[in-house]
Amino acid sequence: MKFLFFLIKTLFLLGLFCASCSGWNKIDSTKLIKEWKVDYIDLNGKKVKHLHFGDEEFIYDFRNDKTYLIYLPSNKAEFSATGKWKVNEDETIDLKDAKNVTYAKIVSVEDNNMILTPVSNDSNQYGNLVRYHYIPK
Fold first, then answer.
1. How far apart are CA 87 and CA 94, in angstroms?
2. What pLDDT score does 49 carry?
3. 130 near 65, Cβ under 8 Å?
4. CA-to-CA distance for 112 and 109, rounded, in angstroms?
5. Most buried residue, 57, 76, 103, 128, by CB count within 10 Å?
6. CA distance 23 to 110
């Protein structure tokens, strides 16, 4: 019985050590550097294709200098905005607008998909109910 307890304790501590190792579960922000378009939106478990401007959704263009451009493909010259992005210790990426206010978080980014959630600073927090799923443009 003591051996079993020792073995379980050792495996638990080894798991904690490995989880804190450098590079474990680190978000690879280099995968972010590209243009992304909406694949679908998850609204509290319901898959929706489009929310804004008919069939057109915003494109995000993330750049190496930790800035981004967001635009509508049909009207890039007139409707676009810029901002900055920052990787957090909790392995999310904050998206900040031109006023340096965080309005969204990227909670996952891989080679072929990215998940973005809105952030709200008021009591109407809907960020957990809405998840934008992006794919490379």
1. 6
2. 80
3. no
4. 8
5. 57
6. 15
Tokens of 44: 């509290």
- Mean pLDDT, rounded, for 59-86: 90
Position 57 pLDDT exceeds 50: yes
- Confirm whether pTM is higher than 0.70: yes
- Tokens linked to 137: 């443009």
Q: What is the DSSP string of 31-63?
A: GG-SEEEEEEEEETTEEES--SSTT---EEEE-
- Quickly tell me which residue has 């809105």 as its tokens: 118
Report whether 98 contacts 19 (CB < 8 A). Answer: no
Helix/strand/coil for 127: coil
The residue behind tokens 């904690």 is 16
Q: How far apart are the first and last CA of the chain?
A: 57
CA distance 106 to 93: 5
Residues in the chain: 137
